Amino acid sequence: MTYSTVLFYVFAFLTIVSAVYVVTAKNIVHSAYSLFVTLFGIAAFYILLKADFIAVTQLMVYIGGILILMLFGIMLTQKVTDVEIKIRILNIIPSVIFTVGITAILLFVMLTTNWRIKTPVVYESTVGEIGRQMLSGYLLPFEIASVVLLIALIGAAMYARKTK
Amino acid sequence: MQPQILSKITYFLPETVLIITLIVCILADVILKKKSLVVSGLAIAGLLVSGYFVYLQYGMEASLFKRMIVIDPYASFFKFLFILSTIFVLLFAVSSKEFRDAEHKNEHTYLFLSLALGAFLMASSVNMLMMYLSLELVSLTSYVLAGYTKKEKRSSEAAMKYIIYGAASSGIMIYAMSLLYGYTGTMNIYETARILTATGTVSSPMIIIVLIMITAGFGYKISSVPFHFWTPDVYEGSPIPVTAFLAVTSSAAGFSVMIRFFATTFLKSSAFVAGSWQIIDGIKWTEIIIVLSVASMIIGNFVAVWQTSMKRLLAYSSIAQSGYIMLGLVVANQAGLTAMFIYLVAYLFMNLGAFYATMMIANRLNSDNIEDMKGLGYRSPFVSISMVVFMFALSGIPSTAGFIGKFYIFSALIEKQMLWLAFIGLANSVVSLFFYVKVVKYMFLMKPDEGYDSKVQYGYGGYVMLMLFAVPTIFFGLYFVPLVKFAEASASFFGLR
Amino acid sequence: MVQFPILGIGILSWIVFLPVIGMLILIFIPKAYEKTIKYVAMIFPILQIILSVVLLMNYNKDLAGINKLESFQFVEKLSWINIPALIWDGTINIDYLMGIDGISLPMIILTSIIGFVGVLASFSIKRNEKGYYILYLFLVTGMMGTFCALDLFLFFVFWEIMLLPMYFLIGIWGGERREYAAIKFFLYTFFGGIFMLITIIGLYFSSKDPVTGLHTFNMLTLMNPAAIDPNSLLGGVGTNLRYLAFVALFIGFAIKVPIFPFHTWLPDAHVEAPTAISVILAGVLLKMGSYGIMRISYPIFPDAAVWFMYPMAILAMINIIYGALCAMAQKDFKKLIAYSSISHMGYVMLGIASGTAIGFNGAVFQMFNHGTITAVLFLSVGIIYDRAHTRGLYDFGGLANKMPKYFAVIIIAFFASIGLPGLSAFISESFVFLGGFKNETIRVLTIISTLGIILNAAYILWTIQRIFFGTLPEKWNEITDINGRELLSTVPLLLIIIILGIFPSPFINLMTSSVNQLVNIIWHLN
Amino acid sequence: MEIGLHHYLIVSAILFGLGLFALISRRNAILILMGIELILNAANINLVAFSHFGGLGVDGQLITIFVIILAVAEAAIALAIVLNLYNHFSTVNVDEANTMKD
Amino acid sequence: MDYTLKYLPLVILLVPMFSFLLLAFFGNKLPRKGDFIAVSLLFINLALSLIVFFAFAQTGKYSYTVDWFNLGKGNLNFTAGFVIDELSSIMLIVVNAISAFVHLFSVKYMEGDAKYKKYFSYLGLFTFSMLGLVLTNNVLLMYVFWELVGVSSYLLIGFWYEKPAPQEAAKKAFIVNRVGDVGFFLGIMIIFLTLGTFTFTDIFAGIEAGKLQGGLLTAAGILLFCGAIGKSAQFPLHVWLPDAMEGPTPVSALIHAATMVAAGVYLTARIFVMLSADALTFVTFIGAITAFISATIAITQNDIKKVLAYSTISQLGYMIMAIGVGAMSFGMFHLVTHAFFKACLFLTAGSVIFGMHHVQDIREMGGLRKKMPITYWTFLIATFALCGVPFTSGFLSKDSILAATMAFANINGGITYIIPIIGFSVAGMTAFYMFRLLIIAFLGEPRNKEKYDHCHESPIQMTLPLIILAALSTFVVFSFNPIGADSGWIMQMMKTPESLLTGTKGMIYHIVDRAEYTEMLHHAHYPAMFLSLAIAGLGILLAYVFYHWKKVDVEKLTEKIKPLYNFSLNKWYFDELYDATVISFTMAISRLSAWVDNKIVDGVVNGSATVTRWTSFGSGKFDNVVVDGLVNFTGGLVGFFGLIFRKFQTGKIQTYIMFLVFGIIVLYFMFR
């Protein structure tokens, strides 16, 4: 058992448990906080996978952006003191069956498939390489991503604009 | 910047023009407040210019941006389709009452443009990441558009359903793509094909689940069963121009990416020759498409029978129509591809026409309920007769373009000796008559209720628009040489043939 | 290649598309000018009659047609769709190919006559005349085209296109349950159409024109066994797929004929349709099915045709007897005539199933005769309905004295309908039976079918009795006899019925050579 | 035992399943969005893991970046839409917004 | 005389047609509705027929044929033509004569009828058809006219269609005839398909050449004879004729006594030479059975016309039987004599009915002799003729037939003796019932005083034909020898031809050559004559005993043999039998078919109703949306599945995603 092994299991446990809590919590605010833990755990995986830039991005964008956004969303749409905050679970039996089913299929696939395994390429820091790639091979996606963000902006603005 | 990336930048002109138009439109909107016609005019002009560039590059083949996207007749065909439909939809929007009533006047213009841009990229992507990205671009724009009339309760509900369903589907798709990436180590579909071919017989469960999950992503875009559930609700809730756009442009974009994905990724890379598509052994994607297509036709047609809302009816009809188009993919050869192209062009005219007529009627009646159209044929003959043309075209009656589309699809099937499939498809088109004719029935065979005598009013613009759809629908039904020639010339992938 | 051009356009194109010109003219006549609309609409069927007389005068009855383009007449061949292509092994070639032979000529004459009669009968239409006549003319074009087309694709287009006006004509101007009847008619025929379409496409891919080496939709080429690629879908002789294709095609046509058990649309459609449309429906439309069998199914699939003669004869027999039995139980005059049509089309089918020259002659002749006779009958129903607003057989009685002219008209038609000698149907029915009798495999069925003669007589006489005999109910005291326009629409048909009953030879001579050629093809004579 | 590809894949599969579970079973729109984020994160784990173990360098990471970008855009629009929905329905329980159905 | 025989028959044929058309189209504009034209035309026609007859007598058989139409180059040729031979020339006279007299008679009889014009035009049409039937030399054409005769008789029988009975009778006549005609037609088909011709001469030539033989020939013969069964009202299709008496009485005289019903006999005579031994047996027995059955029925009938009708059937049976036993010329002879005296009987009956103001029941009559002397005397003469009393024409022909049956029995022996036995017993019964009729109607005391008082003798237009016809019922017309017709012109002219199948033997019958047969006939002549005289006398005597002298209480006797009496009175229950079997069966089948068509065929195709009932959910909606316009098999099915499918569209996004996931799983397991 190496460090990384231990760390992996710890974070895997953390991630999964918190994720389970995210989807099952009665209180949506608890879910949101629990999601924080999950996302953090995933960021830790990225570090374990030597993807430092992604890990940072994960922390910044997800935790700093999306999660906050969602919390705002929750705040805006829920009165915290309200009982409404506690939400029931729908379709419990079929949803359990289907999700377990599809997870089982995926696990089966994961374990049986002959994945492509090569020696990992090790970078000093991935940032430089990512930057290089971003402006060469991934130039177009990069540009398009900006358009996507523009549209998201316009769209969000459109919705957010005050109704007369 | 590395010169080799930009060496072929001229090939990217159509998209560039679109992006520029998009920005110009935004600026124009900011500067010229509330002069929607100007902005729309600008957008149409931009689209036409873009179309001109597409025309210039029609027939060329090239790959751009390190094989992120390609230029080939296939993509150009779809680009023409998108430009045409976007122009039409922009014209729709001008006369749409829903849009007129919406408080924001011009956002839709650049949203439509960005949608067109996304569709352009979808048609030319050869990289799964690009596919995902462009698909998301289209989707995000559509989500916004679906809820465009945000004062409308139904519109916001539609947007909500659409985004959740869309996000789920695309999430599933990117997950599957990640798996495929893990197997082949590349996102480029040509590379993928090469690697898969080299593996020999691929029949692992992985490929199957990946196939299905990726199909979920595309299938949601083309609203194929069982990924169609959003369609009726969103179509019903969205403003009609948006619905038309979703039904035609967005769905055609879905086809453009889906066809290319399947027809490149899972074909033997060594056998990229005309007419004979050799599917990699063990990958049963045609079977999957058969199931989806048959299910789409059956469910689409059968449920459409029950609809009373015109938009919902057209939604189910779109589901069924995508089933027919998929039949062309099942054939998995050049003829099938051509047939799909022909169908798509026909579909563009007849479906947009149907939506336009619906919109004109709904503008006046404030309802798209078929029962409210009772006896409309006598009060507003022109729009009603046009509607009849579109309905019969959609059901595939000869001498309409719809028939030619079906004719080619089924010809391709029969040539491949898929008789049963042809029969199922044709039998379904009988079923489809039920509801298409129902519209006709309400318009012409039923008398309106007492005191119900509202006429649909439209200016010359309305006439011209209806003619724009109806004339090609009939013309291509009677003389389909240009249609077929265009389709055949376009039925060529980059690197294929 | 245009033969017999008028203003540079072939006469067949004229005859087919004249009504379209009429439509265009009608579109520009304002709705209010009802009279003008009527008379303009009337001009075109008259012109068609003139043209079909011209056809008749210039027709060379010695040329057989059927499978040889050289012996077709007034042929027009223009390339319609011609796309050199990579897919589908080369060129996609659809010709605008029209021509007539001894099988189609009678049908064209019939169509033009019935088309004219129909316009006359349409004068009782009182609402939205403009739309009515436009659709009516459209319908006539569709029918004419079907009988002229020699290219399968063209044929199919005409075949299906005719559904649309029919749907509206029944659905808008029909009776109480018009919507139901219209949709039923539409769906049934469309359903049949898909079988046809599958077969047509299958044939296309199985063909290989010996001259050009390409696939073809040309019926005449397809009739040449050498033009069918033996390794293709429908290649070979007597393969299962060929039988299947024959059956599919047959279903398509059978629905139109209609043949049991595909007949149920017919009573509904007839009952609900306005008079003129019933006339067209019974007079011409039904013939398209049997015409199609003779024109397409038989010569292209002679092997299957021979194999299926027995089952077809069974169906024909069922049609004859079952139709007559059902007619007997009807209480509605129009429905009775509708079922009698089923019975009479059974004769046509029996003639076709016989596979003999005399049977075919009888079938074609019977098609013509049934057209004229049933037209008169439906017109008569319309006449009485216009006056009494009911068609219940039990509502009448004693009309013979009140409406003597009407009685005279209808009784001739009735007697023609039961195959009375001296009237045209007798000869055709005799031919049919002779043909059926000649073919040993279906001889027994033919003998059973002759029961139909008795049953037909029974219900027709019963009908006469119920409507014309007995005492006149009070309520019909004011009823008036047939008027001039109605006489104009019925008497010419009656004259045809009588003249052809006495001097059938000019008419039969038109078709004999074609029919003999057809027989030769089926039995591989020559 | 060395941590290999499969470990990450299993975690990702479980996360994917949980995400789907949220989609199917939760009524709250925001929770559903969280489910979508879980699915996307599962995909991201895959991409990074494959990239790492498959010797693909930063290729997979780049893709991950784009997925994250899209997730942001999607989340933004989705929240805007959800807020709009709340204005109309006074709830974010998506099953209650079912005025349109067959 | 060439032209006489070439064109005159056509003129004769077309004259009544002309009369028909003239009256039908212009009758109302002519004075007296043109009846005088019709009458005079017919008399002209009679004269022309006589000319033709004499021309024929001079030059012999003449046949003229033209092409009617053909199919292809000579392979199937349909011809039309006429033949003047002994059969047709005599028939021409008979038909025209009777028709002319009936025309004349009708002028007064039908006077004042609302459809006076129609009546005469129909008579013209009928005469035309009948003449055509007689003249043609071609079996198909014969069938054509055969049917036309049927139609015109339909029109005439149903002439008073305002009343229900004539309608029914007309319909019955037509349909029953049709049954026979189908057989006739099938026979024609056999002949045409084996011999390729319709012309009698060619048919006979073909048979002689052996192209058609054995069972098929027998079948063809019997099938052709089926036509005769229908038209000549032979058992089992005899039921229509008594009912046909609903027509005007002159019509009965024309159609149901002299001409139309004789057509069957004429046909049988025409085809006599081609009938095989078995076919002839069949013919014989049909004739005999008919003769017997109808004679037994006639005994108890009370309607004057019904009695005559059954007697007609009986006599037709005689004729058929005569042809069957090989004495075709006797059959024809009887046809001719019978035509005149039966026409006379019917017309006298008409006269009585006219005089009695439409009373037909003989129980209402009585003592008419005094009021209507001419009618009585003519009736008496005709009755004598019918009963075969010497010095009448009937005596000549009937005895010949009886002799022929005896000869026949002598040749064949065994069971065939039943034929002469039937023949003689029928002769006895005939005498009995005719005199019963005569006695009840004309002798004794009037039973209905009121009617009797108003009764009067008919005018000259009516009595004149009676007198002529009565005169024509005497022996001199046919033969100067009152006890033997052999030397008479008619028998000299009309000889039984040699059968084409002479020498063959069927199951019973033996066709012997003509010489041998004539020999046997000579032997049978006198025994038959005496026997028949005795039996006829006995019959007459019994009638007098029963009804005139009333030595036997008829009522009591009737009571004693009630079942038999009822059996006879109810016509052997044939109508009831047919009603219970054929007709109700057909009607049931017809209703069943209609039901099946409505419910099952349409129902299977429609399907919707059943499917809805099974599913029962959303039925209100279903009616609105689907039944309302889309009911149909597909409608039902589509609607049904559509209903199920649309249940998935719940409007809840979670459900949608659930189905999406479910879809993925299902697809995975489908393609795993």
Structure, described:
The complex is a heteropentamer of chains A (about 160), B (about 500), C (about 525), D (about 100) and E (about 675). By secondary structure, chain A is mainly α. In chain A, about 75% of the residues lie in helices and about 0% in strands. The longest helix of chain A is centred in the middle third of the chain and has 26 residues. In chain B, helix 4 runs parallel beside helix 15. Chain B has a domain of about 190 residues. Chain C is mainly alpha-helical. Chain C has 21 helices and four strands. In chain C, a hairpin with an 8-residue loop joins strand 3 and strand 4. The two termini of chain C are about 30 Å apart. The model of chain C has no long low-confidence stretch (mean pLDDT about 85). By secondary structure, chain E is an all-alpha fold. Chain E is built from 29 helices and two strands. Chain E has a two-stranded antiparallel sheet with strand order 1-2. The longest helix of chain E has about 35 residues. The termini of chain E are far apart. About 5% of the residues of chain E have low confidence. The chains are: A mainly alpha (about 160), B mainly alpha (about 500), C mainly alpha (about 525), D mainly alpha (about 100), E mainly alpha (about 675). At the D-E interface, helix 1 of D face helix 29 of E.
C-alpha end-to-end distance of chain E: 101 Å
Helix count from the secondary structure assignment of chain E: 29
User: Considering DSSP H and I runs of 4 or more, what fraction of the residues of chain C is helical?
Assistant: 55-70%
* First-last Cα distance of chain C: 28 Å
How large, in whole angstroms, is the Cα Rg of chain C? 22 Å
Task: Write the element-wise H/E pattern of chain C from the N-terminal end onward.
Answer: EEHHEEHHHHHHHHHHHHHHHHHHH
Overall geometric form of chain C:
globular
Question: How do the helices and strands line up, and which of them pair or pack?
Answer:
The complex is a heteropentamer of chains A (164), B (497), C (526), D (102) and E (672).
Chain A: H1 3-24, H2 28-48, H3 52-77, H4 92-112, H5 126-135, H6 139-160
Helix pairs in contact in A: 1-2, 2-3
Chain C: E1 5-6, E2 9-10, H1 11-27, H2 34-58, E3 73-83, E4 92-100, H3 104-121, H4 129-148, H5 152-161, H6 163-173, H7 178-206, H8 219-222, H9 240-256, H10 265-272, H11 275-300, H12 302-328, H13 333-354, H14 357-388, H15 399-402, H16 404-417, H17 424-438, H18 443-449, H19 451-468, H20 484-502, H21 505-522
Antiparallel strand pairs in C: 1-2, 3-4
Chain D: H1 5-25, H2 29-53, H3 59-89
Short description:
With 497 residues, chain B is mainly α.
Relevant terms:
heteropentamer, B: 497 residues, mainly alpha, two-stranded antiparallel sheet, 21 helices, 2 strands, globular, C: 526 residues, two-stranded antiparallel ribbon, 69% helix
